[in-house]
Amino acid sequence: MTSRKLNISTENWSEEPFAISRSYEDNFDVVVVELEQNGVKGWGEGSPTEHYHETVDQSQAVIEDFRKELENGMSRSELQQAMPKGASRNAVDCALWDLEAKLAGKRIWELAEISQHLATDGKSEPGSVTTVYTLSLDTPEKMGEAAVKHARRPILKIKLTGDGDLERLAAISENAPNSRLVVDANEGWTLEHFQRFVPELKSLGVEMIEQPFPAENDDALKSLKHPIPVCADESCHDSADLERLQGLYEFVNIKLDKTGGLTEALRLQAKAESMGFRTMVGCMSSTSLGIAPAFLIAQRAEIVDIDAPLYLYEDRASPIKYKVSNVFPPAAELWG
Predict the structure, then answer these.
(1) Mean pLDDT throughout 257-262?
(2) In this predicted model, what pLDDT tens digit does every residue of 205-232 receive, in sequence order?
(3) Is 159 noted as a catalytic residue in this protein?
(4) CATH ID of 5-115, from 1.10.287.1770, 3.40.50.80, 3.10.560.10, 3.30.390.10
(5) Sequence-distant (≥ 6) Cβ neighbours of residue 159 within 8 angstroms
(6) Domain segments of the chain: what residues?
(7) Which residue among the candidates 102, 157, 255, 258 is catalytic per the annotation?
(8) pTM for the full model?
(9) Among the four 26, 28, 214, 286, which has the fewest Cβ within 10 Å?
(10) Which listed CATH number (3.20.20.70, 3.40.50.1010, 3.20.20.120, 3.40.190.10) goes with 120-327?
(11) Catalytic one among 123, 159, 222, 321?
(12) How many alpha carbons fall within 13 Å on the CB side of residue 11?
């Protein structure tokens, strides 16, 4: 029987103030799982999300319920069946991946399951990717000022909410004329907003619209024209959601805190592609430890949104390296 030691902890991190259609935050909590086996430690991070009825206390309790199984050698496949998807399972799943790589003495992309997923161009070693940089929801004037500061970034993601969004986009487009644009309403639009905004957004060069309607109301997308591709975020958690999303969305946004870890994220990306969806990788507020596993999904994603550490005042030791909007593979000292 495999013998491991499990440690569960919580942390609070400060970040630049950030607003979306339904919330505002300047700090966030994470749950960190550490698994030690044969003197080797693997770790992972999950970011519980209030919108999905998660807290760090609840996440800790979920993991604690599986202490015996995890310390007695529970596998990743067993974990998928036993623990519900969400931030708790994400932290455990990513810790198991990290532990597996370290016990094998390999980088994670050298493991067979990852190597096969990445080897779309004949090589499995990951290269740098370009992430969006997200502009927090604010007045058109404030968002226009933010666009000036970030005009050299190749692609900006704009948080929207409904009324005033055309003015916000016009100000950003004027002040960052060379940046590609995608937008995210975080479920904040009505049908009238969509019908009125989309032609104008098309003229401004917007390339994708993320989650315009509440997840429970997204059937309305079936009857609407999509001159701009639409992406499911809150509507897509794992591969079981994909059948329902056909005919509603062109993209799906893969976040490890929704899928419950890298294992299901890999499955979701492969199945989505096989069904004709285009893929995006996203993130919750997180440190570089939370971003490192998502970097592997980013290798095949058309749109990459793994910018969370750029808003932190402090980050992990050996953090993910960013050069403007280019993101580089995680160091072995960090994860994987």
Answers:
(1) 98
(2) 999 999 999 999 999 999 999 999 999 9
(3) yes
(4) 3.30.390.10
(5) 19, 20, 21, 134, 135, 136, 137, 183, 184, 186
(6) 5-115, 120-327
(7) 255
(8) 0.96
(9) 26
(10) 3.20.20.120
(11) 159
(12) 20
